[in-house]
UniProtKB/TrEMBL annotation:
SUPFAM superfamilies: DEATH domain. The lineage of its organism: Eukaryota, Metazoa, Spiralia, Lophotrochozoa, Brachiopoda. This is Uncharacterized protein LOC106160250. GO terms for biological process: signal transduction. The gene is LOC106160250. Residues 34-101 form the Death domain.
């Protein structure tokens, strides 16, 4: 149960994926990474752009190619990365990356709840690299106690709509946390 909760966070998934991409960029030649990137759907123009930006740093070029794949692919996950390595017969690298993944996973699971919370807070929001269709926004809203509805005050957008709210029904596919510093108020429909 703890494992599922800890690994359901998009920040954790992105963190693991970035660590593994760094490991791959250390292990595989830039020529093979360029071929892999092309097969994963990174356009040739973007590959050339990355090459021009990193003319003397093959490791950084490799990292940026794989990071571009993360940005472009909504389903960019650790397991998709494993599959891509296997499909391109990079088996030695795949074994090394799987071992690195197990090590990182064990480190995350070994953390106490307080350490895990601190660790998650230290992770940088990465503009939705694993959730490429989403963007982070900051807004003032109200959420019902059962976390099923969210109300967005309309006064912020239209001065004539005092006390009116846009009401949204929320669908949750994972866990949620409400920091103690935020007050919740039930939305009246």
């Amino acid at each position: 149960m703890i494992m599922l909760q800890r690994f359901s966070s998009p920040l954790i998934q992105t963190h693991l994926l970035q660590k593994l991409i760094a490991t791959i960029s250390d292990q595989v030649s830039v020529r093979r990474i360029r071929f892999l990137g092309r097969r994963l759907g990174v356009p040739d123009a973007k590959l050339d752009n990355i090459r021009c930006q990193n003319p003397n740093n093959a490791q950084e070029e490799s990292f940026q190619i794989l990071r571009e794949w993360m940005k472009r692919t909504a389903g960019a996950t650790v397991h998709n990365l494993f599959k891509a390595l296997k499909d391109h017969q990079l088996n030695a690298c795949l074994d090394h990356v799987k071992n690195e993944y197990l090590t990182l996973s064990k480190e995350i699971l070994a953390k106490s709840d307080d350490e895990f919370s601190t660790f998650c807070a230290s992770l940088e929001y990465t503009d939705g690299l694993t959730l490429s269709a989403m963007k982070k926004i900051n807004m003032r809203c109200y959420v019902s106690d059962d976390m099923r509805y969210m109300g967005l005050p309309l006064t912020r957008y239209n001065a004539n709509s005092k006390e009116r709210m846009a009401l949204y029904r929320l669908e949750w596919n994972g866990n949620y946390e409400i920091p103690a510093s935020y007050a919740r108020r039930a939305v009246v429909s």
